[in-house]
UniProtKB/TrEMBL annotation:
It comes from Actinomadura alba. The chain crosses the membrane at residues 21-41, 178-201, 222-248, 268-295. Part of the ABC transporter FtsEX involved in cellular division. Forms a membrane-associated complex with FtsE. This is Cell division protein FtsX. Keywords: Cell cycle, Cell division, Cell membrane, Membrane, Transmembrane, Transmembrane helix. InterPro entries: ABC3_permease_C (IPR003838), FtsX (IPR004513), FtsX_actino (IPR047929), FtsX_ECD (IPR040690). It is found in: Cell membrane. It holds the Pfam family FtsX_ECD.
Length: 301
């Protein structure tokens, strides 16, 4: 097989259909970038879920004079009530560890977590956050039994399960992921259609050459290969552009998401590189396969 001839045919095809080739590259780049962004968000959700699953706690907030719970009677929980609550929590079989957090400690942790939003810190003063018991569970799914055992107890204002908060957060991320993948799917369909039209136009422009090649006994694969490689090269260039866009997504979307939302774990660059390689391979294979199917369907070589 003459490599020089194949390369020459590829160059001719890309040059003759330059506008459509550029459109194809841009469409593939956008499609693979959106596809890769969906995978990045999915990886972020998965990492965050695995990271926080065994760290989920149930917070039992004690009564204060400003509590809206009528059972608190506008009074702070007594030390006796706190000791009773702690003793009963440690006896529960679902509980792994119990840690008491005073008002001052809670306020210090609040200032540390929200140091990036000074307005929120300035509007909150010491004593606004009640003291609480932070309960680590052996199985986070068993929080209901602990909650039901503590609710309504003397001195208890409210019971907050962090799992419910995290579920809402992950639901938002999953919505972003599926939105990105849906748009990527639409772009992939558009890319396939553009690939088909580009290859058909290229084959039509070179119908005389391909006819002569058939007459001299060239194999179907030898005739089809330049067209398939045209699509693959366009997919490769689009995938490389998509890789650049994915790096920007990591810096300006994923990292900012991790920085602004305190419970998102860091997404490593090794994961990003793996997703980039996968997205580029998908783009190349998609364009090559679309070219191959277009030739078989329309050219009847």
């Amino acid at each position: 097989m003459r490599v020089q001839f194949v390369l020459q045919e590829i160059w001719i095809g890309l040059r003759r259909n330059l506008t459509m080739s550029i459109s194809l590259v841009i469409t593939v780049a956008i499609a693979m970038a959106l596809f890769g962004t969906g995978l990045l968000i999915n990886k972020q959700v998965s990492n965050s879920t695995n990271y926080w699953y065994d760290k989920i706690e149930v917070s039992i907030f004690m009564c204060t004079k400003t509590s809206s719970n009528t059972s608190c009677n506008k009074a702070d929980a007594t030390q006796e009530q706190k000791n009773t609550i702690k003793s009963d929590l440690e006896k529960l079989p679902q509980v792994s560890a119990v840690e008491y957090e005073s008002k001052d400690a809670a306020f210090a942790r609040f200032k540390d977590q929200f140091s990036s939003t000074p307005g929120m810190v300035q509007s909150t003063k010491a004593g606004d956050i009640p003291d609480s018991f932070r309960v680590r569970l052996k199985n986070p799914e068993e929080y209901k039994s602990v909650s039901s055992a503590m609710l309504g107890r003397p001195g208890v204002d409210q019971v907050v399960n962090e799992q419910e908060i995290l579920k809402k957060f992950f639901r938002i991320l999953n919505g972003l992921q599926w939105a990105a993948l849906l748009i990527a799917g639409i772009q992939v369909i558009a890319a396939v259609l553009i690939v088909g039209n580009t290859i058909r136009l290229s084959a039509f422009n070179r119908r005389r050459e391909t006819g002569i090649m058939r007459l001299v006994g060239s194999s179907n694969m030898y005739i089809q290969l330049p067209f398939i490689l045209e699509g693959a090269i366009a997919g490769l260039v689009g995938g490389i552009l998509a890789a650049f866009l994915l790096v920007l997504s990591k810096i300006f979307l994923i990292d900012r998401l991790q920085g602004s939302l305190q419970f998102a774990s860091q997404l490593s660059w090794s994961s990003v590189v793996g997703i980039i390689i996968f997205s580029v391979c998908v783009g190349v294979l998609l364009c090559a396969l679309a070219s191959f199917l277009t030739l078989r369907r329309y050219l009847k070589i």
